[in-house]
Recover the amino acids of this structure.
């Protein structure tokens, strides 16, 4: 059985946060009381149990696990433990090749991190974003730079050898010098993985409205580019190689779960707003917490066969699948193995997209070596323009 015929990853969503960040458009919410959180955990476990009765695809041996959000560590250790136990009992969690839990530095301590390690998580991803308190405040983060560094140390002491830190550039109040200071400080922590993203102003978020209204100013294009260029150079010199547009790792420490996404392989997802992908269709759960809780209480095997409003199903035609596979694969520095694309979809990309690919080659945005197509560093800088060739 091929990898694209099995679930290679499992994602679990926690929609709760202590405070909603100003730039965030994910299905996450602040203000829900503990009683609702417990009902959510019960509903989540119910979804896991019922969907195990009629799996769309088999679960691959060693399929990766990822608890994201929101902020999973807003939940208690007991609540997270119940979810993990349900996943194990229902056959979704089976000696995962990697088990990651996201954490906000303001929601963890040594005891909680140690308990998460004992539950079975072997990797944690910390939403650091910046190590400048003024910048963190501008983003609406609930932690300080000092708390972020302390959380990294606590994660190490708890037994997490694999730790990722998220960093963000192009944010309010940020300068090239302050971003370099943040990178220097994070590199002193000797992490094996760093995700470095440029801020994207999502429509409808508080930060987007503030920028549009002139209340907040972002770094100009030249400053943002200097931050972008600096990131790859500084991290490479520190031994963290770029393996995806926004991700850097010590060789062998890449995020196995995220690679499932970039290789366009199937994954199961549970919880509010969670999106499952079988290779031929996507199913996205409602983003309404209370609706999800009420719907999961009524969930049954027969209900899985209908679209009751609890989720939406999108069927993907072959052209869309090929387009998405190319776009996701080209995010990685290794590029796309065109032979595997032909094996999976029965199409020769060089023939079907010959004109578009030649344009990318002529513009030095891509290079083709044997049966591998990859973006150049210039192509990665303008990735969205390169991806348009396959839309």
């Amino acid at each position: 059985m091929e990898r694209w015929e099995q679930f290679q990853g499992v994602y679990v969503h926690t929609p709760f946060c202590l405070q909603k960040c100003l730039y965030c458009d994910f299905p996450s919410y602040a203000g829900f009381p503990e009683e609702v959180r417990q009902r959510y955990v019960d509903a989540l476990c119910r979804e896991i149990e019922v969907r195990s009765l009629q799996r769309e695809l088999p679960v691959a041996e060693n399929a990766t696990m990822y608890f994201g959000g929101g902020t999973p560590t807003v939940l208690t250790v007991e609540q997270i433990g119940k979810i993990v136990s349900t996943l194990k009992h229902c056959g979704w969690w089976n000696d995962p090749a990697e088990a990651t839990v996201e954490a906000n530095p303001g929601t963890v301590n040594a005891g909680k991190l140690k308990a998460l390690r004992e539950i079975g998580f072997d990797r944690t991803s910390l939403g650091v974003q910046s190590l400048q308190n003024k910048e963190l405040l501008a983003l609406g983060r609930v932690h300080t730079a000092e708390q972020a560094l302390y959380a990294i140390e606590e994660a190490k002491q708890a037994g997490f050898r694999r730790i990722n830190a998220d960093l963000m550039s192009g944010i309010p109040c940020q300068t090239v010098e302050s971003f370099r200071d943040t990178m220097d400080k994070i590199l002193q922590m000797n992490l094996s993985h760093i995700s470095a993203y440029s801020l994207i102003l999502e429509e409808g978020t508080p930060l987007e409205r503030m920028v549009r209204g002139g209340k907040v100013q972002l770094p100009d294009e030249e400053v943002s580019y200097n931050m972008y260029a600096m990131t790859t150079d500084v991290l490479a010199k520190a031994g963290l190689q770029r393996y995806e547009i926004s991700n850097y790792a010590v060789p062998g420490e890449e995020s196995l779960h995220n690679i499932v996404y970039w290789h366009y392989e199937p994954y199961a997802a549970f919880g509010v707003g969670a999106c499952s992908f079988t290779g031929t269709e996507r199913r996205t759960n409602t983003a309404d917490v209370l609706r999800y809780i009420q719907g999961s209480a009524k969930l049954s095997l027969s209900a899985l066969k209908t679209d009751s409003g609890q989720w939406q199903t999108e069927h993907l035609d072959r052209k869309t699948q090929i387009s998405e596979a190319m776009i996701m694969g080209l995010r990685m520095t290794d590029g796309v193995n065109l032979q595997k694309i032909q094996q999976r979809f029965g199409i020769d990309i060089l023939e079907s997209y010959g004109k578009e690919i030649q344009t990318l080659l002529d513009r030095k945005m891509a290079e083709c070596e044997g049966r591998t197509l990859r973006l150049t560093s210039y192509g990665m800088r303008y990735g969205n323009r390169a991806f348009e060739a396959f839309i």
User: Anything to note?
Assistant: DSSP finds 16 helices and 17 strands in the chain. Residues 34-51 form the longest helix (18 residues).
